[in-house]
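Page 37, top half.
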Amino acid sequence: MKGCAVVGLGATRLSDTTLKGKEMGRRVVVLSMAFVLLCVAAFVCPKKVCASDYPAAVSEYLRFLKTLDKSDPASVDKAVERYVTLIASRKKSVCDQGFVEFLRFYSEVCDTVTLSIDKKFLELSRSSEQDKGAQQFIQARDAEIRRYGMRLDSTEGVWIIAQLPEYIAHAFRPYVSKAVQDYLEIRGKELDRLFVDDGAITIPAEEIGTRLAVWERHLARFRHSALRKDAVFLYRMYIKAFLTADGYTDPLGEICTDKSSLPNAWRTYIKDHAGTKSAEILAGYLDICGREGFRHTLAVDKYLEKLDTYLDSLGKGPTHAIYLQCYYGVVK
């Protein structure tokens, strides 16, 4: 889709920044990407956890979060401060549960602030004479929200709100479990490099393979993480991206042959990661593609269906950190 620069869900784009005459077209962009939808379809809709299912401290923290103004970005700092005083000194499992509640709250604040900025920007940009005021407003709001782990960015002429991963990592790393720390470290590194843009993958196949291997090791190491389902989501996304590329590049189309770059990347991965489940999956896919002449056939589809069944077995359901750090992009 036009203007897509995301890997994840749950964020809102702002209005078109191009002002012409007295009228400005407003675009509403639905954030999606073909192979990401394949991943998302396998997950059930998130269900809210009843406060009574949590330890008393987390339930109290959840009640506190509900009192905060989600249209005020400063509420994020208040949520962090309350977490530190109420939860940070408790055992790691409780800290992780509190962190998950913070992530939900943080995502809701980002969405609400997006709508608020969008409304004001439209008011200020109804004529070309007001363009300067609209741009000054954007600059001022960007400076403000950066203090709370957000930033204004744009892609394909569309404003978006993006989260700054270092804010979350700095605030919570000392308190959460090793599993969550590892998750935040991996995601922070990934966000330094654009993954998709305009619906197309922007990194080499070899780098997708590297990310796939990292998440596979994470899943093997942390089998009971509070963010395991998020890690499974990312593992699933990367292996699907590695196998099926994106909406603009069909690895089983005419441009893909036995000697093309994608199958060669599969072969390298299989060799470098021998003995892993992902290498086994890739080897099986490469074999079936070769036997089917790199064409879409029922046999290929059945193999991918079996892959979905295996990925489901790793764990599926509500995700939390996916809503965190969901944008890949460069600050304009």
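Page 37, bottom half:
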Amino acid sequence: MGRKREPEKLTMEDLSPEDQRELSERALRSAVAQMIRAPCELCGTPNKELRPYGPKGERICFQCGMKNEAATTRQFRRSLGEDMN
């Protein structure tokens, strides 16, 4: 059996300026659309205001965060790099 060939990797420099713009615009639109429709990782409700304050760092909505304010506060502080001792 032959060895699998790695697919050729392209960089932005390999593309024409026109293609670079189109790719960048498409990537930006996709990222924005994904952010707007992202579901809360605890309740699944689509929400555009998610924060990584779930029990294991999940991105959660405000309503889920307020169900256990102490745990949310701990995760918030952890995300800021504060010492939890």
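Margin note: Residues 40-85 form one domain.
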